């Protein structure tokens, strides 16, 4: 897939052209003035499946206060920042979006979202208490029992897929690491 239509160099501000840099195999934005090649690579989205209750029979969900998918439920997740590990990013997003105190468990799902130029990574996490303090990106944070998950009102396919794996693994009593490729959303006309 082509990258975004970058028109100007991020270093010097001169116009960029899309062309194949020497020795490479695909078009990239290349600055006409300084020659800077603007590599656009997938971004990492990190999050958690924060669970609560005696044997993880409740999960923390956040109602999105911002686009995309405002008004739909999600697991706490967001973009990994430079300078932090995947696990640190997942814990930070959980604090920022829900105000939840958690202890991370293992890596849980790794999802290629090629059409969005993203890789999503979720960790399992145990909530240390049930106090919540949602941040500005979250309209409401709520701990729901697993049979109350609003499947029809989830924000993202990655969230649905991750919650499905959690229910399956919890039922089997063994948690693994799961990978998948998430296809583009089929738009109904
Ligand atoms: Zn330049």
Please describe what this structure looks like:
With 189 residues, the chain is an alpha+beta fold. It has two domains: 1-40, Ubiquitin Ligase Nedd4, Chain: W (Single Sheet); 43-181, Nucleoside Triphosphate Pyrophosphohydrolase. The chain is built from two helices and ten strands, in the order E-E-E-E-E-E-H-E-E-E-H-E. It has helices at residues 86-98, 157-172, and strands spanning 16-19, 28-31, 43-52, 58-64, 73-74, 77-79, 102-113, 118-127, 138-145, 178-181. Strands 3, 4, 5, 6, 7, 8, 9 and 10 form an eight-stranded mixed beta sheet that branches. Strands 1-2 form a two-stranded antiparallel sheet. The protein starts with 15 loop residues before the first strand and ends in an 8-residue tail after the last strand. The mean pLDDT is 95. It binds zinc ion. Zinc ion binds at residues 9, 11-12, 14, 31, 33-34, 36.
User: What composes the largest sheet?
Assistant: 8 strands, mixed
Radius of gyration: 19 Å
- Tell me, what's the shape? elongated
CATH evolutionary superfamily of the largest domain: Nucleoside Triphosphate Pyrophosphohydrolase
The secondary structure category is: alpha+beta
Provide the list of bound ligands, each named once.
zinc ion
CATH class of the largest domain: Alpha Beta
In terms of quaternary structure, the protein is single chain
Terminal residue distance: 24 Å
Number of domains: 2
Range of helix content: 10-25%
Low-confidence runs (pLDDT<50, min 5 residues)? none
According to CATH, the fold-level topology of the largest domain is Nucleoside Triphosphate Pyrophosphohydrolase
């Amino acid at each position: 897939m082509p990258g975004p239509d970058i028109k100007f160099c991020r270093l010097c501000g001169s116009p960029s052209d899309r062309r194949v840099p020497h020795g490479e195999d695909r078009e990239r934005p290349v600055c006409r003035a300084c020659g800077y090649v603007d590599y656009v690579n997938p971004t990492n989205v990190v999050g958690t499946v924060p669970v609560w209750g005696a044997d993880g029979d409740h999960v923390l969900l956040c109602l999105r206060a911002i686009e995309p998918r405002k008004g739909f439920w999600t697991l706490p997740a967001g973009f990994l920042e430079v300078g932090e590990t995947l696990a640190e990013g997942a814990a930070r997003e959980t604090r920022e979006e829900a105000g939840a105190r958690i202890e991370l468990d293992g890596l849980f799902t790794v999802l290629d979202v090629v059409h969005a130029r993203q890789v999503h990574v979720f960790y399992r996490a145990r909530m240390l208490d049930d106090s919540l303090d949602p941040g500005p990106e979250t309209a409401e944070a709520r701990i729901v029992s697993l049979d109350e998950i609003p499947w029809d009102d989830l924000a993202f396919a990655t969230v649905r897929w991750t919650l499905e794996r959690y229910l399956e693994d919890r039922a089997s009593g063994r948690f693994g690491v799961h990978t998948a490729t998430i296809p583009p959303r089929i738009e109904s006309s």
